[in-house]
Design brief:
Rossmann fold; binds threonylcarbamoyladenylate; 2 domains; binds magnesium ion; DHBP synthase; about 325 residues; alpha/beta
Length: about 325
């Protein structure tokens, strides 16, 4: 039985107790819901991989309530500290060299010599992390390869019965995962576009490498960011990108005013706003997938979304959703 906890003092204390005891608790962040475990307990970390069906070569992000706690686990450069001052708490994950004294379990970092760290901008998440003793490993709380959850109901649908509890904080405000920036090398490199637009990072620290990896699932072991498998965020129905019309047997993921007709439509943003579209993306993919399957439709047609701001992250997720699943 997976318990649904309320985001009040009692619920937070209970969730923290479960985490300290080695249990798995999903919790909201401003980006998506995370599946939390105490990053210092190897068995708890292993249970995260098992519950998600996640391959062990794909490392987890460690979450902290404040920058000081995060920097205690890694070797922070001056630029990393500057980024933290400007963007934490918030949707930025930094990959840094693991600190010599880090007690984060090796499996959380998939055995790499780096660790991904982030301080989420969600008061309940930070209260939970602090109460649980910091260093909470938390991938998105979906089954591996599926669509990220932006509501407690999504987590229940994917992981209900497999985890101890979900701390229900309502829908995630941003709706798309954090931007992952590799700060472990000579110069910063974008590993995953996300909730913090790369333009904002570049305004702060100058040009950032765009090593967005044309990943191939089979080649995952050698990748700098092994989570960047091509096929990811995949609904069950096939996804067709760049649609201007929907076929009779297709549902439509629309963007902008006056979309073409379709039997089933989810409009990401009628006013053509990419920030609103990001917040509605994963809920839309989940809803369209379920409703279209029920109606016997054969696929999901997706209209073009501009590349600026959060559009880069949206297009990244859509490209992965459209990639073949094997
Ligand atoms: O917004 C988010 O980032 C959410 C919330 C819960 O914080 N978390 C999330 O985690 O999206 P996950 O596991 O679904 O995605 C983490 C990404 C993966 O692509 C993983 O490969 C990459 O970060 N990553 C983690 N540790 C890394 C490392 N040491 N080096 C390179 N990439 C790493
Ligand atoms: Mg994920």
């Amino acid at each position: 039985m997976t318990r649904l906890l309320r985001p009040d003092a009692g619920g937070i204390a209970e969730a923290a107790g479960l985490l300290r005891g080695g249990g798995l608790v999903a919790f909201a962040t401003e980006t998506v819901y995370g599946l939390g475990a105490d990053a210092r307990q190897g068995r708890a970390v292993a249970a995260v991989f098992a519950a998600k069906g996640r391959p062990h070569f794909n490392p987890l992000i460690c979450h902290f309530s404040q920058a000081e706690a995060a920097f205690a686990e890694v070797q922070a450069s001056a630029v990393a500290v500057r980024l933290a001052e400007q963007f934490w708490p918030g949707p930025l994950t930094m990959v840094l060299r693991r600190g010599a004294n880090s007690r984060v379990d090796l499996l959380a970092g998939a055995g790499l010599d780096t660790l991904a760290v982030r301080v989420p901008a969600h008061a309940v998440a930070r209260a939970l992390i602090a109460a649980a003793g910091e260093a909470i490993a938390a991938p998105s709380a979906n089954r591996s390869g599926g669509v990220s959850p932006t509501a407690a109901a999504h987590v229940m649908a994917d992981l209900g019965g497999r985890i101890a509890a979900v701390l229900d904080c309502g829908p995630s405000s941003l709706g798309i995962e954090s931007t992952v920036l590799d700060m472990s090398g000579e110069r910063p490199r974008l590993l995953r576009p996300g909730g913090l637009p790369v333009e904002a990072i570049e305004a702060a620290i100058g040009v950032v490498g765009r090593g967005i990896i044309p990943a191939q699932a089979g080649a995952a072991r050698g990748l700098r960011s092994p989570g960047l498998l091509v096929s990811h965020y995949a609904p069950r129905l096939p996804v067709r990108l760049g649609a201007v019309d929907a076929e009779k047997n297709e549902a439509l993921l629309a963007f902008g005013a006056h979309p073409p007709p379709a039997r089933l439509v989810w409009n990401l943003s009628e006013r053509g706003d990419v920030t609103e579209a990001a917040a509605r993306l994963f809920a839309g993919l989940r809803w369209l997938d379920a409703a279209a399957l029920e109606l016997g439709l054969a696929g999901i047609a997706v209209m073009a979304v501009p590349m600026d701001g959060l559009g880069l992250a949206i297009n990244d997720r859509l490209a992965r959703a459209a990639a073949p699943t094997s």
